[in-house]
Specification:
Helices cover about 5% and strands about 35% of the residues. It has about 150 residues and is mainly beta.
């Protein structure tokens, strides 16, 4: 009958497993994950990028820019805020791009589709659920995005 021994591992350090065998542990995190086409893996890749950069916005309108890809757009205002998703002819995000959205302030955040853009979401909801609500946009085609998370 085999026994289980707990061993603490540290990156790039060799540790004995049973007194005679050695294992080299390598810590090589992926630094720039690319979209895989599967939502679960894309979200896992985005979460694995630690820390995620934040684009803090305090105005009442903001249009996504190419630099927002893979980041979190933090919207903070006491008044209502409109976040616009531009058409690919204005900003050509790669298909599979993920953009996090956070409503930090009391002002309601609404996601608006730019000219020719379609935003698909549960029950066609385009608003974040409230202060501290979080949602994600994922580009699925040239001018098509999915909005999911804390939306209403």
């Amino acid at each position: 009958m085999s026994s289980v021994r707990k061993t603490n591992f540290t990156s790039n350090v060799k540790r004995p497993l049973d007194g005679t065998e050695w294992v080299s542990i390598q810590n090589t995190p992926e630094t720039n994950p690319t979209p895989t086409g599967t939502l679960t893996q894309d979200i896992a890749n985005l979460v694995a990028q630690t820390p995620v950069e934040v684009n803090a916005q305090t105005g009442t309108t903001y249009t996504l820019a190419l630099g927002d890809a893979g980041k979190i757009v933090d919207l903070n205002n006491a008044s209502a805020i409109t976040l616009t998703v531009p058409p690919y002819t204005d900003v050509d995000f790669e298909i599979g791009t993920l953009i996090g959205i956070v409503q930090s302030g009391a002002g309601a955040v609404t996601v608006a589709a730019g000219s020719g853009v379609t935003i698909n979401s549960l029950s066609s909801a385009l608003g974040l659920s409230g202060q501290y609500g979080v949602a994600t946009l994922r580009k699925t085609a040239a001018n098509t995005w999915h909005l999911f998370g804390g939306i209403q």
